[in-house]
């Protein structure tokens, strides 16, 4: 099997690199599924906002119940705490917003860490392999350099560098992709959160 052969030829540092690759794939697909399945529903938000403007708070709750989007969940949290001052509303929106964003930021730091350490692991494996290759040449009979032996040792040691880059580069690409989505989500939640606070700013008068 190709993977087994690469691990055998690349040395012991191929094991943590292989583990990093599996972890990266797992996190990538988990985060991708999470972002897709927890997208905010702009139509639900519009409907709930319109219902609140008309004083139909119960109907607005029914629209938002069961929603997975961060914005709708923040909106629903405010609806569950209607009798409050503007200061309390801001506190509720801020706290709930932070909770929701933490869900979207989950495990991204692990992805970034893999992107940073995988190339270093690969380079370390290459250094160790090069040392072993030259040591083998130095200890060969007669002291004569065997080009085939040296070339074999070098290409095998370079496998870990290739593996490290193969894992690290996609990890950083994936990390920056999700980080960009997280920033967009954060900005949208902040803007809409302020909008929700204004909408409920005089909620005591509406109830």
Automatic annotation (TrEMBL):
GO cellular component labels: plasma membrane
Record-linked Pfam families: MotA_ExbB
Keyword Transmembrane helix attached: yes
GO biological process: protein import
Primary location group: membrane
InterPro entries associated with the record: ExbB/TolQ_transport, MotA_ExbB_proton_chnl
Transmembrane segments: 12-36, 113-138, 158-178
Membrane topology reported for the UniProt record: Multi-pass membrane protein
UniProt keyword terms in alphabetical order: Cell membrane, Membrane, Protein transport, Transmembrane, Transmembrane helix, Transport
Subcellular location: Cell membrane; Membrane
Ranges where the MotA/TolQ/ExbB proton channel domain occurs: 71-181
Family under the similarity heading: Belongs to the exbB/tolQ family.
Record's protein name: MotA/TolQ/ExbB proton channel
Organism annotation: Denitrovibrio acetiphilus (strain DSM 12809 / NBRC 114555 / N2460)
